[in-house]
Design brief:
The complex is a heterodimer of chains A (about 120) and B (about 110).
Chain A: E1 5-7, E2 10-13, E3 19-24, E4 31-38, E5 42-50, E6 53-57, E7 64-68, E8 74-78, E9 87-94, E10 105-106, E11 110-114
Parallel strand pairs in A: 2-11
Antiparallel strand pairs in A: 1-3, 3-8, 4-5, 4-9, 5-6, 7-8, 9-10, 9-11
Chain B: E1 3-6, E2 11-14, E3 19-26, E4 32-38, E5 45-51, E6 56-59, E7 62-67, E8 72-77, E9 86-93, E10 100-102, E11 106-111
Parallel strand pairs in B: 2-11
Antiparallel strand pairs in B: 1-3, 3-8, 4-5, 4-9, 6-7, 7-8, 9-10, 9-11
The chains are: A mainly beta (about 120), B mainly beta (about 110).
């Protein structure tokens, strides 16, 4: 089974621009979560989608948004980029959404650099 | 404030020894705690999950303990190998949902 894929792997943008990142979960997995990882803050939860609905949301500003499609693929969008948005953005898929303790499978991440 | 703390300093051990990593948390009552491994340039890989009513969980050379009174989890790698060198992350659920809170991770280096 193919793992979680994320595109693009690397991205360089300038302040004020917007960016869209894509995630394809493992086949059969319907839940997708997004995280931001920085050296100082570690992994921080952005949001989780299941069946095209946002189920959980972290403490990020409204500039960060996401969506999920009927095939479970997910995108996240960051508008009006700031320097502090430079980070590794990780997507994780899991089989279930209603079960609290469900293993998450991470993709390789998208490295976003904002200049 | 609510937080998770892992050993901030890198851990260097000799091949064959047991590595012990610590995860302490405050102001949470997690239903479960997970340990992940992360290699440079890659996403975290799930290793073990331990629930609040479990004291210990094992998987091959890995062992996790969970003490809800001390608010601490210990992660052990026995008979360590250079291939075990990586950053190890602990994560727990913050409430009755799937939102995970993560530690910053501990870097482990196993020297041959």
């Amino acid at each position: 089974k193919a793992g979680v894929t994320q595109t693009p792997r690397y991205l360089i943008k300038t302040r004020g621009q917007q960016v869209t990142l894509s995630c394809s979960p493992i086949s059969g997995h319907r839940s997708v979560s997004w995280y931001q990882q920085t050296p100082g803050q570690g992994l921080q939860f952005l949001f989780e989608y299941f069946s095209e609905t946002q189920r959980n949301k972290g403490n990020f500003p409204g500039r960060f948004s996401g969506r999920q499609f009927s095939n479970s693929r997910s995108e996240m969008n960051v508008s009006t980029l700031e320097l502090g948005d430079s980070a590794l953005y990780l997507c994780a898929s899991s089989l279930l959404a209603g079960v609290i303790a469900d293993t998450q499978y991470f993709g390789p991440g998208t490295r976003l650099t904002v200049l | 404030s609510q937080k998770i703390e892992q050993n901030s300093e890198a851990l260097n051990i000799q091949e064959g020894k047991t590595a012990t990593l610590t995860c302490n948390y405050t102001n949470y009552s997690p239903a479960y705690l997970q340990w992940y491994r992360q290699d440079p340039g890659r996403g975290p890989v799930f290793l073990l999950l331990i629930r609040e009513n479990e004291k210990e969980k094992r998987k091959e050379r890995l062992k996790v303990t969970f003490d809800t009174t001390l608010k601490q989890s210990l992660f052990h790698i026995t008979a360590s190998q250079p291939a075990d060198s990586a950053t190890y992350l602990c994560a727990l659920n913050a409430g009755n949902n799937r939102k995970l809170i993560w530690g910053l991770g501990t870097s482990l280096a196993v020297n041959p």
